[in-house]
């Protein structure tokens, strides 16, 4: 069934009334003690988490190493972590990500293992016997990027993004300045009622056309006219929104400089813009903010070791500096950062010293609500043809991407009733990640 705006709003009659942490866009309701922000970092291309986090025990490590002969990460390149899975397997972090070690050591970082799109729990025997109900368009970049940003509605994926719909649930008012920000194309923040605003890697920039008083007056006059044409009326509304946004953002940009302690890399510049908006939350009247940023280059079909080294370094340095700056301002527990990626990589290497499109992968969590004793999920079996192999050398996910998403938006403020509105398929897995009673059949 397609979830229409009318049905969605109707469903909020029950869920919205009992949201765990109601939002307000009123400037009067900006208490710092209730502030939370969620930062989603999309690792575009299909990140190989299992090149970044490795098992320390010989049994799991030897299976991993024999499956990835040409790209194996040696044990000397791993920093031990105090994190284990439910089976007792312990892990280490690739030394190219050493800047993140302080977050792990302080209990401000964790990860989820073997996460991916699922319509229901699936086993290898289900797949082999053709009994498995599998998501559409597996292993395709563009389709899986969309899937990761949406939730399953029964016959297809949602029209809007799970984070945009979550903000609809949390919002008690449609007025005020948008509190959803993005630095690149996405559908994750698409919503029924909640607007989003673009900030580029240099932060919010004023529109030149609105700098000139005469031109602004002309635009204001045209924007406030009545138009019979829906297209023209829509354009006028966009102009009005742009003028409002500029009026609200200009004093923030003028009074809060970009944090240059965060590296001037592609990801770092986006995180500088995020930090600026977080610091401006009080001025904007926000006690909830959400952000979408991206780092590309993870489609490592060849030369994976070199390419991953570069990507891991940029990611680790950016996230570490971001949280150091948040810590100094007492905000690190108020900001949760999670990674997303369209899929993991194959369990085995290929002939080009790389890996191919996979299915299940892993994801990092930093800041608010994280602990570093036990991770989410369990380390998969790297045995070809083993229980975690879909038959093509791809890991069968044990945690659905919607369970993972439900976990982070529940931290943001959604209760179980609201989660079931945004993720109507969640019941098949027993609930959000970390709370599920059903993981696999």
Automatic annotation (TrEMBL):
UniProt keyword list: Signal
Tree of life domain: Bacteria
SUPFAM superfamilies hit by this protein: Alkaline phosphatase-like
Protein name per UniProt: DUF1501 domain-containing protein
């Amino acid at each position: 069934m397609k979830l229409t705006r009318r049905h969605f709003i109707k469903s909020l009659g029950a869920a919205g009334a009992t949201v765990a942490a109601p939002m307000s866009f009123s400037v009067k309701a900006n208490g710092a003690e209730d502030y939370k922000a969620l930062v989603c970092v999309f690792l575009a291309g299909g990140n190989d988490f299992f090149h970044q986090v490795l098992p320390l025990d010989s049994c799991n490590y030897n299976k991993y190493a024999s499956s990835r002969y040409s790209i194996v990460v040696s044990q000397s390149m791993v920093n031990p972590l105090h994190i284990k899975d439910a089976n007792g397997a312990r892990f280490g972090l690739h030394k190219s990500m050493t800047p993140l070690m302080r977050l792990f050591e302080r209990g401000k970082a964790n990860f989820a293992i073997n996460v991916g799109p699922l319509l229901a729990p699936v086993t290898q025997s289900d797949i082999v016997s053709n009994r498995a109900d599998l998501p559409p368009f597996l292993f395709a970049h563009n389709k899986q990027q969309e899937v990761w940003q949406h939730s399953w509605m029964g016959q297809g994926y949602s029209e809007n993004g799970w984070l945009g719909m979550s903000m609809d649930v949390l919002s008690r008012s449609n007025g005020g300045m948008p509190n959803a920000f993005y630095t690149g194309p996405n559908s994750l923040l698409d919503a029924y009622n909640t607007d989003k605003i673009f900030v580029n890697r240099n932060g919010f920039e004023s529109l030149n056309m609105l700098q000139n008083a005469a031109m602004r007056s002309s635009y204001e006059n045209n924007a406030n006219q009545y138009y019979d044409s829906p297209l023209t009326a829509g354009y006028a509304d966009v102009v009005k929104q742009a003028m409002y946004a500029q009026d609200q953002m200009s004093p923030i940009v003028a009074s809060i400089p970009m944090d240059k302690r965060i590296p001037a890399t592609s990801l770092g510049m986006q995180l500088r813009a995020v930090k600026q908006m977080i610091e401006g939350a009080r001025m904007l009247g926000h006690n909830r903010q959400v952000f979408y940023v991206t780092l590309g280059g993870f489609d490592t079909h060849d030369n994976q070791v070199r390419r991953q080294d570069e990507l891991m370094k940029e990611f680790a340095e950016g996230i570490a500096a971001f949280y150091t700056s948040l810590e100094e301002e007492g905000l690190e527990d108020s900001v949760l950062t999670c990674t997303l990626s369209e899929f993991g990589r194959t369990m085995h290497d290929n002939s080009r010293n790389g890996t191919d499109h996979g299915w299940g992968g892993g994801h990092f969590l930093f800041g608010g609500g994280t602990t570093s004793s036990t991770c989410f999920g369990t380390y998969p079996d790297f045995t070809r043809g083993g229980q975690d192999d879909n038959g093509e050398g791809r890991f069968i996910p044990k945690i659905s991407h919607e369970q993972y998403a439900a976990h982070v938006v529940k931290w943001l403020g959604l209760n179980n009733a609201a989660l079931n509105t945004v993720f109507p398929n969640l019941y098949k897995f027993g609930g959000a990640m970390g709370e599920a009673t059903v993981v696999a059949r």
